[in-house]
Amino acid sequence: MSITPKDVEHVARLARLELSDSEKDQFTEQLNAILKYAEKLNGLDTENVEPTSHVLPITNVMRADENRPSLPIEKVLLNAPDEEDGQFKVPAVLE
After folding, report:
1. Within a domain: 92
2. Across the chain, what does the average pLDDT equal?
3. Does the keyword Hydrolase apply (predicted)?
4. By residue range, what is the domain housing residue 25?
């Protein structure tokens, strides 16, 4: 598979980019070089390689969720600038 200048023009149009003729030629050449390099992967024997999402084993570094009792509402509302009926009272945003 190879990229043509027409393909580059199409992608540029989708990205709403204006490219000069020299830029189109440059990108065509660069994209073809990338595809040629990627084709080397087809020559690799991956028959006995397990699929992975990472090269190295990664584990979750977050602690496990634990149920803990909440603070009493009276203690929570001690820092509230204003409260009403056991809830924070704030200025109205909408009229």
Report:
1. no
2. 91
3. no
4. 5-43
